[in-house]
Design goal:
Layout lengths: L10 H8 L31 H18 L3 H14 L4 H13 L3 H14 L4 H13 L3 H12 L7 H14 L3 H14 L4 H13 L3 H12 L6 H13 L3 H14 L4 H8 L5
Amino acid sequence: MSPNKRLTLQAWLAGRRTGAAVALVGVVLLLMACAGPGNADLTTASDDTDARRRARVYLDLAVSYLEQGKNTYALDAVKQSLALDSSMYEAHDLRALTYMRMNEPTLAEGGFRQALALQPKAATVQHNYGWFLCQQGRFNEAMGMFSAALAHPTYDTKAKTWMTQGLCQAKAGQVANAEKSLIKANQLEPGNPVVSYNLALRLYAQADYSRAASYISPLNESNLANAESLWLGIRVARKAGDALQVNVLSNTLRQRFAQSKEVGLLDKGQFDE
């Protein structure tokens, strides 16, 4: 498995292809990597045994299945990977992610703990485990995992962790901290649609419509716009008294996402739902 291989749960992109609305508040990227901070040396293909090479093939297969939503197939493939080599923390991490998808929290937590027992400084595992803990409402533990991941100087996907931490803080009602984390994510990865949407949503809730527009407008002018982002843009423009923008975005929403729930809300004038 390539060191840069990542498993992404991108409901946003799926929504763009299908035209469906997407619940962006809960969208995060869960990460998989085969090399993590804390290794004494960098491993290369020549270091792998035959069993480990075959285990990596099954691990790649499991990633592919999980990206396709084939959870049972993914679990079977990752089990075969672990049967060949149970020492790969990446496989335990992927097994935990699969159990998360299957709504098996006890088994998922066991997988994350085993992955960290094998590689305590694996920032990708800390990121994933942090989001799992957040989903379980264990916010303090989740923040500890995110902080540990962000502390690694060589961790190269910090924007995703800042974003996920921000979403978790919002879920925990930590509004000010959520905004700070999302702004940090935006600084590291400008234009990320999930970050832009959630920043705009936070600012809209605080009645800071000018700043909300500064994040949602560029998103809605791009090909990454979807029904949910357009709807938020309409609500922001309406609060700001920009009737022209409301009309433009409403027409776009009707044309591109005619069957969405947002069009139904627009037709009923339920802007505060």
